[in-house]
Amino acid sequence: MSRDAAIARIHSPPRSAMQSGRAKTEGWLLEFAPSESRKLDPLTGWFGSGDTRAQVRLSFSTREAAEAYARANGIAYEVEAVPPQKAEIKPKVYADNFRYGRAENWTH
């Protein structure tokens, strides 16, 4: 039932470096690994390949839904573990700079 030996990667998208919130990081993505190397086109000078699966990104609400889709379509897949979340940063208060008995150094 499997068409190719292409392996898909199922992962939770990381947070963008340009954002501080958690938007667009809740779902799961299924992406295919490139099955052939990219070659230089002599006419245009651009890199490309005949692999159209590398352009496909399927999004799912849960990891189980992504795995079920891959199994139903005979796609070999690997699940990437979710990186651990860092602890929330406690916001500082400006008045704490003048608090009696503070242990931190002066901040300005």
TrEMBL record:
Keyword Electron transport: yes
Keyword Electron transport among record annotations: yes
Principal localisation: membrane
Keywords: Electron transport, Membrane, Respiratory chain, Transit peptide, Transport
Signal peptide residues on this chain, from the entry's feature table: none
Chain positions covered by the region annotation Disordered: 1-23
UniProt protein name: ETC complex I subunit
Lineage: Bacteria, Pseudomonadati, Pseudomonadota, Alphaproteobacteria, Acetobacterales
